[in-house]
Amino acid sequence: MHSLWVRVAEICSMAMMSCFTGVMLLVASSIVMSQLQPPKPIIKDFNVGISPLVQTRLPLVFAQGEYPPPMQDVLLVGISLKADFSAVWDWNTKHMYVACIGRYHTKSNMTVGGVNLQKTHDVTIFDKVLRSKEEAANWTLDNAKKYALENEELGSLAGAAVELMILYHPMRHYGYSPYYTVQPGKNPVMFQLPTAYEKRTEEDDKNAMCSRGYA
């Protein structure tokens, strides 16, 4: 007849084995899911609108005590689209983080063999958390603007070519949550920024400094 302590030890060992098995299954399923090619969202009617390119002062709240705030290149991008992300929503999906990313290149101070290397900038233009499969199935934007395309190097945005991508990140209840990028069209979506800057008055810069966004 087993003693009480032997039975307690058996129960504890069985519980530990069950936990270990569960963890191993969770890790294995995460690895397998990360290797599989997930379904892609359906993105249609994708359009882009841009504001005039300006050189304006950084808002005071971001200037870290510097006055007057430094100048920078600023432009707003409006996104219009109709998208269906329900195909990538499964039983393990809690929320879906979706973002529109703008990628452009500028010259850097580094040179190799006398050639200036390019610096790559990935900027979030718009993002949102889709909280249900129904919302994911009918995600619509109409000239939506959220974050400015900006650079502290004056003149760096003039004439720059910007490529747009859609990033989506299924946030899962259990296991690893990978993120993916997809082109919003059959071909890469690119546009070129204006080469000329819109003139702004001193009053415009003053309003921009004191505002939360950009005038």
UniProtKB/TrEMBL annotation:
Cellular compartments per GO CC: endoplasmic reticulum; nuclear envelope; signal peptidase complex
InterPro entries in alphabetical order: SPC3
Coiled-coil annotated spans: none
UniProt-listed GO biological process terms: protein targeting to ER; signal peptide processing
Keywords of this entry: Endoplasmic reticulum, Membrane, Signal-anchor, Transmembrane, Transmembrane helix
Family: Belongs to the SPCS3 family.
Protein's UniProt name: Signal peptidase complex subunit 3
Top-level taxonomy: Eukaryota, Discoba, Euglenozoa, Kinetoplastea, Metakinetoplastina
